[in-house]
Every structure is written in C-alpha cells, then in structure tokens.
Design brief:
Blueprint (H helix, E strand, L loop, with lengths): L2 E3 L5 E3 L8 E4 L2 H12 L6 H9 L3 E5 L6 E4 L7 E4 L7
Antiparallel strand pairs: 1-2, 3-4, 4-5, 5-6
The structure holds zinc ion (ZN).
Amino acid sequence: MPKFTCSCGHDMNLSQGRPDFELALIPEKRIEEIADFLASEVKMTDEQFFNMIDEVKHTVYRCPVCRRLHVESRINKNHFDTYALVPSPQ
Ligand SMILES: [Zn+2]
C-alpha cells in the first residue's frame, strides 16, 4: 500500500483516490494564465486545464497530525522538502 510517513511518525495513505491532505502548490502566474483562458473565446478542455497545472505544480502533503508540509521537488520527483511549524514567541 503506497504511503508517505511524516517525520512525526504518522502514515498518510496514498492508495485511495485524492486524500484531503494532498494539495497542489501552483504559481499565482499560472492561475492568472488559466483565468485568462477561461475569460477568452478560446475553449479549454479539461485535459488542457490539468496539463497547464501539472506543468508547474508541486505536490504537497500536509500532515493531519502535526501540520508539517512536505513539498515535492520538481527536479527529483521522489524528494520532498519538509516545513514544520515554528511556535511563535510569547
Ligand atoms: Zn506529521
């Protein structure tokens, strides 16, 4: 069963569709380009829509337990950079 194990030890199950913890990080510029397409007379298919996103997106897993973000590298698809919450000073 494909899974991703967070640094906190929580296993995220990747084998059942699109789980709520799987996110896409997309540059604002690309979102604007897609919006321009949608506003124009040029018809965009769903395949074109997903291709435009897949070209630039980073897959992100957000751990539901500790809220760490695991961001997939665009260069090495099997590498994730992990970002953890830092407690704010009181
Ligand atoms: Zn975690």
